[in-house]
Design brief:
Layout: E1 14-16, E2 30-38, E3 41-49, H1 52-57, H2 63-81, H3 89-94, H4 103-118, H5 128-134, H6 146-153, E4 161-164, E5 167-170, H7 183-197, E6 203-207, E7 210-214, E8 223-228, E9 240-246, E10 249-255, E11 260-263, E12 266-269, E13 284-291, H8 294-307, H9 309-318, E14 323-329, E15 335-339, E16 347-349
Antiparallel strand pairs: 1-8, 2-3, 3-6, 4-5, 6-7, 7-10, 8-9, 9-16, 10-13, 11-12, 13-14, 14-15
């Protein structure tokens, strides 16, 4: 599932700092790692579990059974939310075909509607046609006239679509849905939910940068996620000199200071405001949101990129259950980093 430009593929902006291969578990749990491709990006999953023999004795899934189950989760979500699958539920909804909605679709739709209302429309799953018209879907900004945008904007708006009798009802048949700004976070949560239900309590799930960390590692340490530092040019070497500690939390990043355009000497991220159809002009280049699950963090990371840093900070002051790390362009033209107060104890600087 390809990410639209307002939710850029920036997964390399954060990297997991995992324990060394020689790490031994105090509880005799074995470390397992799963890597692959899904939804147009990578996935990286680390979990601690019994070896196959002990798992079978305990009536718990083996390594291969776990991989098969996770692949099944990926497949079910792809068949529901992928715009690249012409037979997916969302593709049929966009084609105005009659289709019964499943729980995955309803979960994502209801979560999207909730965060649309919570953020006063800064998060909106109906904005994709405008993003595509502006050229941001393929990260190539193009010129579009106001008339063209206005013709698309009449069909944009979370209030123009609803679920009724287990089917989507649109005010306009031209309205299109795109769950790219929330689906990967939801996927991370569903994988974590599966692992937890099977008594695999210590794990971390990273799907394209949408990270959820469950509990602590068997040695009692919290999970650590490295944070990429700002650079002055898009092709500069990546540097990591700080990390955030997570425990039963998610971190999701949106925007990318490596993909921006410059206007009057100021850097702007490629982000479309769903309420105007125009580029959101503010100094925020990237935001990493910390929340209790990845679905929430995913939606809010996109919304904050629309709001800009000042409005996002105001939002967090009213909703302190959410925290964030901002990368922004200061008045001197330099990129800088700022974390909200609730994260001060979780962030450490590497010496």
């Amino acid at each position: 599932m390809m990410r639209v430009a307002q939710k850029c593929l920036f997964s390399i902006a954060i990297a997991l700092l995992l324990a060394s291969c020689g790490e031994k578990s105090k509880t005799e749990l074995k470390k397992f790692t799963l890597d692959g491709r899904v939804q147009g990006t990578y996935y990286h999953i680390v979990y601690y579990h019994l070896d196959d023999k002990a798992a079978q004795k305990a009536n718990l899934p083996t390594e291969q059974e776990i991989k098969h189950s996770i692949d099944s989760i990926f497949k079910a979500i792809d068949e529901t939310l992928s715009l690249w699958n012409s037979n997916s539920i969302v593709s049929k909804v966009n084609a105005n075909e009659q289709v019964m909605l499943n729980k995955i679709f309803i979960d994502n739709f209801e979560a999207s509607q909730y965060f649309s209302r919570l953020t006063d429309g800064c998060f909106d799953i109906t904005v994709a046609p405008v993003v595509k018209a502006q050229g941001f879907a393929n990260e190539q900004r193009t010129k579009t006239d106001k008339q063209q945008i206005d013709s698309l904007m009449q069909y944009v708006g979370y209030d123009k679509v609803k679920i009724e009798n287990n089917a989507i009802k649109k005010l306009y048949p031209q309205t299109q849905l795109d769950f790219n700004a929330i689906a990967q976070g939801y996927t991370s949560d569903k994988v974590s939910e599966y692992l937890t239900k099977n008594n695999i309590r210590s794990h971390i799930v990273d799907i394209g940068g949408e990270v959820y960390a469950a509990n602590r590692k068997p040695d009692g340490q919290q999970w650590r996620v490295a944070i990429e530092q700002p650079t002055e040019t898009p092709d500069a070497q990546r540097e990591y000199n700080s990390f955030i500690k997570l425990e039963n939390q998610s971190i999701v990043t949106s925007g990318n200071y490596r993909k921006f355009f410059i206007e009057n000497g100021i850097k702007y991220s490629h982000t479309i405001d769903p309420k105007t159809g125009q580029n959101a002009k503010h100094s925020l280049l990237s935001v990493s949101v910390v929340a209790k699950n990845a679905t929430q963090a995913d939606a809010l990371a996109t919304a904050f990129m629309v709001m800009g840093m000042e409005k996002a900070e105001e939002f967090i002051s009213q909703h302190p259950e959410y925290q964030a790390i901002f990368i922004y362009c200061d008045t001197d033209g330099k990129t800088k980093t700022k974390a909200t107060k609730g994260l001060q104890d979780q962030i450490e600087i590497l010496k």
